[in-house]
Design goal:
This protein is an alpha/beta fold and about 325 residues long. It has two domains: about 180 residues, NAD(P)-binding Rossmann-like Domain (Rossmann fold, 3-Layer(aba) Sandwich); about 100 residues. The protein is about 40% helix and about 15% strand. The protein has eleven helices and eleven strands. Strands 3-2-1-4-5-6-10 form a seven-stranded parallel beta sheet, sandwiched between helices. A two-stranded parallel sheet has the order 7-9. Strands 8-11 form a two-stranded parallel ribbon. Strand 1, helix 1 and strand 2 form a beta-alpha-beta unit. Helix 1 packs across helix 6, helix 3 runs parallel beside helix 4 and helix 7 packs across helix 11. The relative contact order is 0.13. This is NAD-dependent epimerase.
Length: about 325
Amino acid sequence: MSLHVIVGAGPVGTATAHHLAEQGEQVRLVTRRGTGPVDPAIERIAADAADTDRLTALTDGAVALYNCANPAYHRWATDWPPLADALLTTAGRTGAVLATVGCLYGYGPVDAPMTEDTPLAATGTKGRVRNRMWTEALAAHRAGRVRTTEVRGSDYLGAEGNSLLPLVLPKVLAGQRVVLPVNWDAPHTWTYVVDVVRTLVAAATDERAWGHAWHVPSAAPASVRELAVRAAELADAPPPKLTRLPYPLLWLGGLTDPFARELRETAHQFARPFVMDSTRATAVLGITPTPLDEALTAAVRTLTAAGTPTPAGTVH
């Protein structure tokens, strides 16, 4: 049994804690308020992970330190730097492998499928913040001060808060119209949370992964319309009613809504094809993606179990 320390109890942090506990590992989950899953195999600790000394004490003896944190969208530029610095310093002090859950923001707008070799050319605030985190961690790794890796996924399927889908699927299942600034027919990669966890743990515990970023193995791309149609079929809901909101209205909404304002930077992801190539992680780490229909079925079941109204109550 080895100690694994996880920072953040969002969808990925929680799922990672469960995954490691099921494998018989010692799991310590760190959040500001000590929140997280109630499980006797998971130790929940209330602590500020940006406090380097405190985080170092909690990580002493751990084989891996997992960065599953996710500050509020509009506070990335403020909250990420001290937290990332604390995580990196802690990894250096303790020898724990720093395994970070990343994203695709760092690539900026792209015209071809993204690979791990795609230049980190983001010009927006969020992308630059994530690029600085990875660049500093990689420099420390190459200097021999830490061991680190990062896994990057596209919009999550099966989680709130990191995807457009929570704005789409509940309304689709309820037979309501969905109005968003989205090209409903552009190909888009979706990453299943379960596959994020599998890749994260594999990268943290396989020395071949250290010093590299990895794309989470994800199913073949599908448009938002394709997902909405299939979700409606699974729930016996009416065909989805999807309307594209003009971008100028999103821009205007950002004048008063911080979340809408932050979406301006990533609007390109849903305006044209946004495809991630994840073949490298499959070849090296042996992770294969969950079939999209299986992942979508699980997401629909979760929504219906949470009380999302649907015209019919079953999921096939």
